[in-house]
């Protein structure tokens, strides 16, 4: 069974607001629905990367429409192509070559034969084979998630995620989950390797930074832990769990002002959970210590 994520789960996973999600649906970048599959999550992550690079939703929509018109063998550009921005233009990369998504303008110099090959992009059978490979990789990822949820043996879960990675070298989600399995087994070196592979595949993946920070924190390397919590927050400023963990780290490192800032931000983002009570208690403790330096609890 394909994993389905509710709108609330989707928004939480991708740090989206309901207004943003509705806007993407209105622009027909993703279908309007109450539950999303993994392919929609991939599309939404691509959209969010472009939005973080200050591309507007209409710009993204025009680029996707242009790619769909130019590349008729591609069913969904957001999930089947590498779409990115150089800061000014939205680009697409195929077989290591780039062109501007909306205009089709080539961004590298080629001879006539190469130009013809690039404009043809990939033959339909090659494109279909790649789509099938990525779809199969997604299915193995989903299988890994389902195996984890049902408490299957670790070797079965690891095998499913590894097959996803073998089929798709950019399967950052599978890499992070493999890293977490090794982390839970206290296999630090393997966990770190998979987290770093995830960041190589997707440098803007906040969860990979967050999990790597947790690893360094667990190993007592507070400097590297802080660096990766900060990296996660730079990508996703409203990442509540990252604010929580870095607040704990700063509090334990005798940096109360930084801790107060992150506790405060965490409570703005997540005021009602059980962890919010811990945050309020720690924040009150720090404020009491600031007013009464001799105060201890």
Number of helices: 15
Beta-strand proportion: 5-15%
Q: Biggest sheet: strands, sense, closure? A: 3 strands, antiparallel
- Helix proportion range: 55-70%
**Mass-distribution shape:** globular
Look at the helices and sheets and give the structural class: mainly alpha
Estimate the mean pLDDT confidence. Answer: 83
Q: Which residue ranges are poorly predicted, with pLDDT under 50 across at least 5 consecutive positions?
A: 106-112
Order of helices and strands: EHHEHHHEEEHHHHHHHHHH
Strands of the widest sheet, in order across it, are 3-4-5
What distance separates the N and C termini? 50 Å
Q: What is the total tally of β strands? A: 5
- Computed over alpha carbons, the radius of gyration is 22 Å
Keywords:
single chain, 297 residues, two-stranded antiparallel sheet, mainly alpha
Produce the secondary structure layout.
Layout: E1 5-6, H1 7-14, H2 18-26, E2 35-36, H3 38-52, H4 57-70, H5 77-80, E3 82-85, E4 90-94, E5 97-100, H6 112-120, H7 124-149, H8 154-167, H9 172-184, H10 188-201, H11 206-218, H12 222-235, H13 240-252, H14 256-269, H15 274-291
Antiparallel strand pairs: 1-2, 3-4, 4-5
Helix pairs in contact: 7-8, 8-9, 9-10, 9-11, 10-11, 11-12, 12-13, 13-14, 14-15
Textual characterization of the structure:
This protein is mainly alpha-helical and 297 residues long. The chain has a domain at 5-122. 67% of the residues lie in helices and 6% in strands. The chain is built from 15 helices and 5 strands. The protein has helices spanning 7-14, 18-26, 38-52, 57-70, 77-80, 112-120, 124-149, 154-167, 172-184, 188-201, 206-218, 222-235, 240-252, 256-269, 274-291, and strands at residues 5-6, 35-36, 82-85, 90-94, 97-100. It has a 3-stranded antiparallel β-sheet. A two-stranded antiparallel ribbon has the order 1-2. It is globular.
């Amino acid at each position: 069974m394909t994993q389905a994520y509710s709108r609330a789960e989707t928004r939480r996973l991708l740090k989206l607001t309901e207004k943003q999600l509705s806007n993407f649906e209105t622009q027909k970048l993703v279908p309007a629905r109450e539950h999303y599959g993994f392919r929609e999550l991939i599309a939404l992550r691509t959209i969010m990367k472009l939005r973080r690079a200050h591309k507007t939703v209409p710009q993204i929509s025009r680029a996707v429409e242009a790619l769909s018109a130019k590349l008729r063998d591609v069913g969904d550009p957001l999930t089947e192509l590498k779409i990115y921005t150089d800061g000014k233009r939205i680009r697409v990369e195929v077989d290591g070559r780039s062109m501007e998504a909306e205009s089709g303008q080539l961004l590298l110099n080629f001879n006539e034969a190469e130009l013809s090959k690039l404009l043809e992009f990939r033959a339909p059978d090659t494109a279909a084979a790649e789509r099938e490979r990525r779809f199969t990789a997604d299915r193995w990822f989903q299988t890994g998630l389902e195996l984890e949820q049902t408490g299957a043996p670790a070797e079965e879960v690891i095998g499913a995620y590894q097959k996803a990675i073998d089929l798709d070298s950019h399967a950052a989600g599978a890499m992070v989950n493999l890293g977490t399995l090794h982390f839970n087994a206290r296999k630090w070196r393997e966990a770190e390797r998979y987290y770093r592979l995830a960041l190589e595949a997707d440098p803007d993946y906040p969860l990979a930074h967050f999990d790597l920070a947790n690893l360094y924190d667990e190993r007592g390397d507070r400097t590297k832990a802080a660096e990766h919590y900060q990296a996660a927050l730079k990508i996703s400023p409203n990442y509540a769990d990252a604010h929580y963990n870095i607040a704990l780290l700063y509090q334990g490192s005798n940096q109360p002002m930084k801790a107060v800032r992150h506790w405060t931000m965490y409570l703005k983002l997540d005021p009602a959970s059980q962890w919010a009570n811990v945050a309020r208690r720690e924040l009150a403790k720090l404020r009491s210590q600031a007013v009464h330096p001799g105060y201890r609890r």
